[in-house]
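Give me structure tokens for this 429-residue protein.
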Amino acid sequence: MITIREVSAYVGQEVTIGVWMYNKRSSGKIQFLQLRDGTGTIQGILVRNQVAPEIWDEAKLLTMESSLYVTGTIRQDDRAPSGFELDVTSVKTIQVAEEYPIAKKEHGTDFLMDHRHLWIRSARQAAILRVRAEIIRAIQTFLDQKGFTLVDPPILTPSSCEGTTNLFHTKYFDEDAYLSQSGQLYAEAAAMALNRVYSFGPTFRAEKSKTRRHLIEFWMIEPEMAFVDHEGNLECQEQMLEFVAQSVLQNCQTELQTLERDISKLKKIKAPFPRITYDEAIELLHREGFEDIQWGEDFGAPHETKIAESFDKPVFITHYPTEIKSFYMKPDPERPEVVLCADLIAPEGYGEIIGGSQRIDDPELLAQRYDEHSLSKEAYAWYLDLRKYGTVPHSGFGLGLERTVAWICGLDHVRETIPFPRMLNRLYP
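Here you go.
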């Protein structure tokens, strides 16, 4: 038995494939079977006068999403979408499926999300999930080739990583605990042991947001690098994103075609990326009619979209005001009211996909930040230890996987970027 992905190696040979019936039509003497197996699709041609009557009749009973083993000869056909067809000689039904809830017609978003466990079988949704897998593979390949070591931070934590209150609370026996919103602090500890590390796992934000960019549970890739400054941090980010985009272009041509993605936009994702400071971004926004945004305020989605429109590839916004960024970010020595940080804004209105910074390496300054942010010295004592015992300049960043998938695929909403999204009012299925 083979998979549809492998058919190019079996031209002219008889094979058996386990498949589902994606669609079917008949001309009376020929049944055209649209078959899928999760690795691809192929059309099966069943000719009435070339098979036994019972095989013809069995195939006629097959409904959408029925499961079967199909046997036939692989034939090359440049007119076929996959480049190959299957001349069917036999079918063996596993199950004739009940009437499929998701018919080939328009359905509302709530209906599709209620049936997400079935919706992911559609060609478009399957293509998105394959692109997601390729993005993950490319990121890990890039980091592995650059000498990073994968580490796994805990999901249950005693405190917030960033000092926020948007956390999911639980009980850890007799103690309070929270679902992690970032593995960064633990990755920093690992970097002091292993030099270059990255974590990759689920994170949770208890934000009551309904925007097209937000999920409650999402996946983060968080590299941390010892002996790397702000500039080196930016270079790593743009090199990684270029590697990812080019890997998707090379390995997901069929999926991008299914998604009708304009690949000319992805071909432009080449390092270096443009950079503007927060000050320059404020000036740009004022010129574009956003007079209400003032220095010291964070950017919202409309602001990020307007900034991105001035560039045809991702843009770094650097040197944000210290007061609106996390406690661990290192101030610019020449201008302490801003920090050595950057948000990477994707083109086409997809907003921030990476946030990163050089971290504070001075133990006294970090202790001062604890006081300014009202952080528990007991809960964060271990993090301060990293600055007491061999502190070094170090930097890192976090990439939101789902936003990156949405951008690469050209999707309207992040809910399609993960198999089973968790949103403000969505915990099923």
